[in-house]
Every structure is written in C-alpha cells, then in structure tokens.
Write a structure and sequence with these properties.
Immunoglobulin-like, Purple Acid Phosphatase, chain A, domain 2, elongated, disordered N terminus
C-alpha cells in the first residue's frame, strides 16, 4: 500500500540487532537521524539526533548521544517518534507526516476495509528521518471538525465549500478532529487528495465514523485508519507547544441498526499509560493541547485524564463529534481538580449538519449545525503558552459571527415586550454581548439556552408539503451561545437599526446589524 511503501523508504537497513524476549515480544532498535539531503534514508555521514523521544504506544525512550534507541514491541505495535521542536519529519504525497513504523508481521485481520499488509519480521534498524526547520513562538494551526464525507459528491462539497478558501491561509499545519469519512473508509484516499491542496501537513484524529464495523473487538476497529494515517494516538511538538492526539472511543461492536456500531468515550489503560509517560516529559511551563474526537467530558476515564492533565497549568483541549459548537470551562463541579478551570472547545464541524439541508445556487447544502451555527473551521493562534481561537463560517466573510433575530414589523404597543435574539456562533459564558438601537447606549444582553429560531424554521419547512430539496437536518438542540434582550419601551414608530456587539474570551470583537420597522 502507498503509505506502507513511504514508511519503508524511511528505514535504513543496517546490521541486524534484534533480541527476542518471548514468543510474541522483541526489542526494536533504530536511530533518529538528521536527514541532511532530505531523501528519507540515512546515509553514512548523516549523524544521529540525541534527546529525541520515541514511543511504542505505551513506553517512551529517549535517543542516546548517537541518536539510537530501543523499545519492546509485540506483533501489533506502532513505533513513532515524538517530533521535537525545531525538527520536521518527512511528509508523503498528500501531506501526511511520516513519523512512524507499523509492525504487524502477519498484517491486519480481514475486515470490511483493507488494513495493514503483512510487514514481516522487524527490520534490522527502524530509523526515523528528521530535518531542521525554524519554529517560532507564535504560529497558527488550522482546525477541522468532522469532514465526514461518505461519497464523492460530499468530497466535492468539502473542496468547494472549505478547501478552496483555506488554500494559502497563514497556518503551519492542520489538525482534523475525527470522523474524517462517514463509515465509507474507502473514501479516505479521495479525501486526502483534496485536503492536500491546502499545502500544509495535516495531523489526523480517529473518529467513530472512521471505525470498521466488521471489527471483532476494540483492538482492531482502526486497522484501515492505521493503514492510511498511521498511529491512532501520538504526540508532537511545534514551537513551545506540545500537541497530543487521542483515540478516545471504545468500540462495543455492531448494534441492531444496519451499518451502525456501538461505542462510548474512553481511552483504555495503554493509552492512559502513554499519556502519563508523555506528559511526564513535558515542562510545566509549556502549553499542552489535547486533540480528540469525542468531547473530553464524555470519556469514561475522565477522572484519571483530568488528574494527568491538571499537573500542567497551561492546557487546552479540542473535540468535534457533536455537530455543534460550544466552549466549556470545567471546574470542580465537573470533577476538574486543577486550580483554574480547564478550557475545552467543542469545535464546529466542516460538514456542519452532515452535508444536509437545501443546496444553494452552486449545489452545496447550507448544512447548518443543530445549535444554529453555520458549518466552518477554526484557526488557533499560539504564542508561548497563550492562545486564541477564531471561528470562520464556510464561504462567509470573516466578520460574519452572529445571526440576529427580530420581527420584520413590530407594533408600537409591543416594542417593550418584543424579544431580540443573537446567536453568537463562537460565543461562551465568558463573552460580553451588547445591543443598542440606532446611536443609543450599549446595553448588556442576557445569555440563555434556547433552540435557534432560524434552525427551527428550517425544521418546520422540512415537514411542510413543499419541503426544500436536500437531505433533512436533524433535531435542534438548546444552543449554548444565544443571547436575548427586548426593544426599548420608548422606541418610536419608524425604521430602526439594531446593532449588536460581542467580545469573546480572547478579546476579539465583532458587530452585527438588523433593520426593523415599528408601526
């Protein structure tokens, strides 16, 4: 397979150094080296890189002064380098970082979708190529929630709705937070060809729709993911920030619905052990960013995870999965043991409401999410251990950050009772949202949890005799980013401009406007 061939190109075959420790266990050895000529193969004069961390998915070792390492492996092990600051691994022809070696002597079990072909015995030396590059304290990362493509039409929607506008954005790499495809694991290659056009490396998180439903157990649902993307969990550094990718679903097997499988949020002991070992080697002053598919609050081992993460005072976690957008500031009431609340962002999805809703004039569904926010993507800016995040709605201006709801016409007698709502797509409990009429004084609005009225109107239209074209959207949720106010009681008859202003947790300010008539 293509990915396996690329990985094998990273291996320099030196003298045999394999020490058997049991029927299914062995010791893998190799070198992390400075790939001066960028050919992926260790040439005779290319030195090893010391003090680089290498893992087998549980244990972590550090390369010696000559770049060498050794790790125990069994017959289903992925060995990977934890990319250090100032160095980069090779990338393949679709911009996927190549930082790992798959060791599956017998290959993957036969499932619905092809997994890893047999890799045979351990090579004499499993070597990892690195080349130096500058990594500043301040940088940006492109964040995708569920792209979730199930056919070529949806890959085309992704290309035209999002990819075309993010080509050339100021980002050093991207992270895709799972549900890369929608159960059709054979769509991964087409998906990668489109995302590769962005022109930056992309790191990928597995999601529940990336599962092979023919898997006999939790250990093998991600075999097709591993074939294409590599390890389902891993870590790397960029600049002063440490990133961790988690596989945070436990597969429960197929349930009674055709084509569906059961799962719940979880990590498993081996992954928890890897995380303990990994974060033990990360200085406390550095920012730790956990990326995952299912929100952190839904992980069954969240108590243990919180204990591990709380030792790092600067931490952020990102998820997708819900097809909504929300900020969570987890405190003691949520079981968070840290001195300060932990910030978790449940990110907007690229596919929005599963590529559903009426298509527009170019054939792309509006695919509004069930919280009333449009589909889109996020840009995270990091500087030291500080960060800020911005939401961008697909094919909309950057300052399109809210929808305002008010009647077209308000009777004069009802102005003091007429409610005005704002859905601030990236708003949180730490946002300040204000309203004014005309050039009046700004007045604070009240945050409420409501179903989005625009989304409810879409659902109502779907059930009418003249429902719009396109796949039906799912039910509405109570959005966590809606604010309310009433029109001032002294509003006179006439045409008026409502203005709303929001300042988010990062200090970013946006304006929204709506015209109403009072008669």
């Amino acid at each position: 397979m293509r990915t396996t061939r690329v990985l094998l190109c990273l291996l320099a075959v030196n003298c045999w150094n394999l020490v058997a420790t049991g029927a299914d266990e062995a010791t893998a050895t190799g070198v992390v080296f400075h790939d001066a000529n960028r050919n992926g193969i260790r040439d005779g004069d290319e030195p090893g890189v010391p003090d680089v961390r290498v893992s087998n998915g549980r244990d972590i070792t550090i390369t010696d002064s000559d770049g060498s390492y050794q790790l125990p492996v069994d017959d289903d092990t992925i060995i990977f380098v934890i990319k250090p600051r100032g160095w980069m691994t090779p990338i393949d022809d679709v911009n996927l970082p190549q930082f790992y070696y798959l060791h599956k002597p017998a290959g993957s079990p036969k499932l619905k979708y092809p997994g890893v072909s047999p890799t045979g015995p351990l090579p004499p030396s499993i070597d990892f190529a690195l080349h130096p590059r500058p990594e500043p304290d301040r940088f940006r990362v492109l964040v995708f929630g569920d792209t979730q493509t199930e056919n070529i039409d949806q890959v085309n929607h992704l290309a035209h709705d999002v990819i075309e506008e993010v080509i050339g954005v100021e980002a050093v790499f991207g992270i895709s937070l799972g549900d890369l495809v929608s159960d059709r694991l054979d769509m991964s290659e087409q998906l990668n060809k489109v995302i590769a056009l962005v022109g930056i490396p992309f790191y990928n998180v597995p999601g529940n729709h990336d599962m092979d439903h023919k898997s006999p157990d939790n250990e093998h649902w991600d075999e097709a993911f591993e074939r294409v993307f590599g390890p389902p969990y891993y870590a790397f550094d960029y600049g002063p920030v440490h990133f961790v990718v988690l596989r945070n679903m436990i597969y429960e097997g197929r349930d009674h619905r055709p084509g569906w499988c059961g799962y719940h949020g979880g990590l498993g002991e081996q992954q928890l052990e890897f995380l303990r070992n990994d974060l033990a080697g990360v200085p406390k002053e550095r920012l730790v960013v956990l990326t995952m598919h299912v929100p952190i609050m839904q992980i069954e081992e969240r108590k243990e995870l919180y204990q591990i993460l709380a030792a790092h005072p600067h931490a952020l976690s990102l998820s997708a999965h819900t097809h909504t957008q929300a900020h969570w500031f987890l405190g003691s009431e949520s079981g968070w043991p840290g001195d300060e609340p932990h910030h978790h962002i449940n990110c907007a999805t690229v596919c929005g409401g599963w590529w559903s809703g009426a298509p527009d004039e170019v054939g792309i569904p509006h695919t509004t999410m069930s919280c009333g926010a449009p589909n889109g993507w996020l840009m995270a800016t990091f500087e030291g251990h500080d960060y800020s995040v911005t939401f961008k709605a697909a094919r909309r201006p950057a300052d399109y950050q809210m929808n305002i709801y008010a009647p077209e016409v308000v009777p004069v007698a009802e102005v003091g009772e007429t409610e005005v709502l704002a859905n601030v797509f990236f708003g949180s409990e730490k946002s300040v949202v204000e309203m004014r009429l005309g050039k009046g004084e700004w007045a604070p609005m009240e945050q409420v949890q409501r179903q989005d009225p625009y989304y409810l109107a879409i659902l109502q239209a779907q059930e009418s005799d003249h429902r719009p074209r396109g796949r039906k959207l799912g039910g509405a949720i109570k959005s966590r980013h809606i604010w309310r106010a009433t029109l001032p009681a002294d509003t006179p008859a006439g045409t008026h401009l409502i203005e709303m202003r929001t300042t988010d947790v990062f200090g970013q300010t946006y304006l929204g406007r709506r015209v109403v008539r009072v008669e």
